Amino acid sequence: MNSNIIIKPVLTEKMTQQGEKFNRFGFYVATKANKIEIKEAVEKMYNVTIVNIRTIITPGKVKSRMKRSGVQRARVNKYKKAVVELKKGDTIDFYNNI
């Protein structure tokens, strides 16, 4: 069940800065997962203690582009992000397997 909750980590410049400054890390998670399930999954996967957790649901968007046959429209799926704040001293290293 834990492997279905966490989809992948958010590896952006902004999340890297928050990780260094405030010890916060972001994850794309399942849209139906709640904060308790996310907390248990992250703590079990990375062996850390979570102090605070925030979730963001981003709605799907309609994007369009021009093709030979005219304008083509497509919908991007909605997704959910979780920003977890770890206990002082704990850290997650996403780059150790590269």
The mean pLDDT is: 92
Number of distinct helices: 3
Please give the largest β-sheet: 4 strands, antiparallel
Provide the structure class.
alpha+beta
What characteristic shape results from the CA principal axes?
Answer: elongated
Could you spell the SSE succession in H and E letters?
HEHEHEEEE
Number-wise, the strands total: 6
Low-confidence stretches: none
Helicity level, as a percent range? Answer: 25-40%
Spatial separation of the terminal alpha carbons: 26 Å
What percentage of amino acids are in beta strands? 35-45%
Describe the oligomeric state of these chains in a short phrase.
single chain
Q: Largest beta sheet: what is the strand line-up?
A: 1-2-6-3
Radius of gyration: 16 Å
Task: Give a quick rundown of the structure.
This protein has 98 residues and is an alpha+beta fold. The chain contains three helices and six strands.
Mind explaining what this structure looks like?
The chain has 98 residues and is α+β, with helices and mostly antiparallel strands. A hairpin with a 2-residue loop joins strand 4 and strand 5. 27% of the residues lie in helices and 42% in strands.
Features of this protein?
98 residues; 4-stranded antiparallel sheet; two-stranded antiparallel sheet; 3 helices; 6 strands; 27% helix; elongated
